[in-house]
């Protein structure tokens, strides 16, 4: 079977990229897999090796560099991706993002369309941008990319009630099955359109690399991305006025003004007990996970907080945000808190005051992580594609 994977952009070490690499590096052992994307910058992730990645750059001056927004992420290269995928003639097309184009792919490609839904932020694209004719207007991609960086665009991004004109839901409804990374994502889709068919397949973790050493160097860790929704500011506020050391290992998407401003605000808020490490290499990140005392995951409404599975696999107790899917994975081996830094601070103080107890809790977290493997994830996704292709 030929399987095409459409990922609008591969750029940073994000959950969607890692899911894709880990899953399809295993699926390719039984099927022919090619990945089509609009922007590709090699990220040096081990599972990236050996995959056939076709970076579609339709206008190098726009998509050949990191310009955030609708134009560079999804839209400028969709038609070219579809053209190349149609020429290759796959049996199935997995949309690893860009779900709003499910109907367009369905019309133009003779393949089964299987969205692999990893989050709930896809609703940011308005129906206006789902019209492929729009992208034939000279300069429109650059214009939309620029406009999406504005303060109003960032504000609009969060106003879900004003974005019900999306055609994404209709597109997902027409798909025979939508693979969701968590029960939270499945419930989200079902709540806004009960006719959408879903199947939950949780992601995994590579226990050969993410494994416990049960070191404990008396610091709190947050592995994140510099983004308001990832909420690293809450981590900083939660250790304010304490003696606890906080390390934030973060990827940063440069060139997007709101993210740059958020980072500057983060720097202005942090005190001497906070250290920010930007773009750490994979090996360094694993060591940080193994040596920390406690892991914080303050991100809001995560479809799947993959990094907490990695922290659990390294034998760390996790405090996560009480929105999104975090509670699913932390049930019995972690706790969740809301937006009040005082609530986080109390939990941090209590956990950091008893070293033996937090190591015991970490052992429990490690045991819980063992049921999440990439082999199981890839097998379930492969079987689903085979069933519906």
Polypeptide structure, described:
It is a single chain. With 389 residues, the chain is α/β, with parallel strands linked by helices. The chain folds into 2 domains: 2-204 and 374-388, Rossmann fold (3-Layer(aba) Sandwich); 219-369, Glycogen Phosphorylase B (Rossmann fold, 3-Layer(aba) Sandwich), CATH 3.40.50. The protein contains 17 helices and 15 strands. The strands form 3 sheets. A 7-stranded parallel sheet has the order 5-3-1-6-7-8-9, sandwiched between helices. Strands 12-11-10-13-14-15 form a 6-stranded parallel sheet, with helices on both faces. Strands 2-4 form a two-stranded parallel ribbon. Strand 11, helix 11 (257-269) and strand 12 (274-278) form a beta-alpha-beta unit.
Task: Please sum up the structure shown.
With 389 residues, the protein is an alpha/beta fold. 41% of the residues lie in helices and 17% in strands. It folds into two domains: 2-204 and 374-388, Glycogen Phosphorylase B (Rossmann fold, 3-Layer(aba) Sandwich); 219-369, Rossmann fold.
Helix content: 40-55%
CATH class of the largest domain: Alpha Beta
Q: Over all CA atoms, what is the radius of gyration?
A: 21 Å
Count of helical stretches: 17
Number of separate domains: 2
| Main sheet record | 7 strands, parallel
Note the beta-strand portion.
Answer: 15-25%
Strand order, main sheet: write it out: 5-3-1-6-7-8-9
Q: Write down the overall geometry.
A: globular
How widely separated are the two ends? 9 Å
At the fold tier of CATH, the topology name of the largest domain is Rossmann fold
Low-confidence segments:
59-73, 123-130, 144-166
Counting DSSP E segments of at least 2 residues, the number of strands comes to 15
Name the CATH homologous superfamily of the largest domain.
Answer: Glycogen Phosphorylase B
**Helix/strand/pairing category:** alpha/beta
Q: Under the CATH scheme, which architecture of the largest domain would be assigned?
A: 3-Layer(aba) Sandwich
> Roughly what is the average pLDDT, rounded to an integer?
83
